[in-house]
Amino acid sequence: MRPLLVYISGHGFGHAVRVCTVLRALRRARPDVPLVLRTLIPRWFLAAELGEPFTHGALELDVGAVQRDSLSLDVDATLAAAAALLSDAPRRIATEVATARAWDPAAVFADIPAPAFDIAAALGVPAIGMANFSWDWIYAEYVSDRPGFAPVIAALRASYQQATVLLRLPWHGDLAAFPHVRDVPVVARIPSLARDDVRRRLDLPVGARIALLSFGGIGLDLARVPEVPGVTFLATQSAAGITP
């Protein structure tokens, strides 16, 4: 059976979570399809989300956004990194195509590094994207102040144009760069524990409303979490400066 070749953005863990949710469903329907995951997301995280077996290789194909923390974007550093990646894109794509030919994939699935679609085109296989936003839409807000984003955006859109289809998730931004779009429902984890079991394991108040603060593994730097009667705030990672 020919494998599915999967490219996942390394910007935070959110892209990986929803990709693994889809891959788990694929595995239930077609357990015979091998999975090859190419991403900077560490193997331990993918194994926890997806389960074995799968093939994994570290590969950087997109920058996303350079952030000092979850809420602070470094625009100049983002532009510098994106421009550097763009200049090196032909080499990276050619190297990856040569590597991928050995796997002989049946298709490419991407969330949502743009070069994945160039790779699929070079391999001559379908390319399925999944997203509720794309980086050209994000970067477009900064072009007027930093014209250097213009060639980056143009390159991203040229790559997105090669997608066979985009699975467009709800609450999306402008995804007009993709020529063929299919709207799909929300992709989310299915809980493995009942609500009461989670509260018991985390020693959370039984009757309280819980507000989860989660920022995709990028970091949390909030000066203060407000006190709200009847609400307990729960963070997925420690953060200096937070007071209850």
Can you put this structure into words, describing what you see?
With 244 residues, the chain is α/β, with parallel strands linked by helices. It has two domains: 4-183, Rossmann fold (3-Layer(aba) Sandwich), CATH 3.40.50; 195-235, no CATH class. It contains seven helices and eleven strands. It has helices at 14-29, 43-50, 75-101, 115-123, 135-140, 149-160, 195-201, and strands spanning 4-8, 35-39, 55-57, 67-69, 72-73, 107-111, 127-131, 165-168, 181-183, 209-213, 231-235. It has a seven-stranded parallel sheet, sandwiched between helices. A two-stranded antiparallel sheet has the order 4-5. A two-stranded parallel ribbon has the order 10-11. A hairpin with a 2-residue loop joins strand 4 and strand 5 (72-73). The longest helix is centred in the middle third of the chain and has 27 residues, at 75-101. The termini are far apart. Residues 240-244 have low confidence and may be disordered.
The CATH homologous superfamily of the largest domain: Glycogen Phosphorylase B
Q: Could you list the spans in which at least 5 consecutive residues all have pLDDT below 50? A: 240-244
* CATH top level class name of the largest domain: Alpha Beta
Q: How many beta-strand runs? A: 11
* Spatial gap, N to C terminus: 53 Å
Rg measurement, Å: 20 Å
- Summing up helix and strand content along with how strands pair, one would put the structural category as alpha/beta
Q: Could you say what the CATH topology of the largest domain is called? A: Rossmann fold
Total tally of structural domains = 2
Estimate the helix proportion, in percent: 25-40%
Strand content: 15-25%
Average pLDDT reading = 91
Biggest sheet, spatial arrangement of strands: 3-2-1-6-7-8-9
- Please name the CATH architecture of the largest domain: 3-Layer(aba) Sandwich
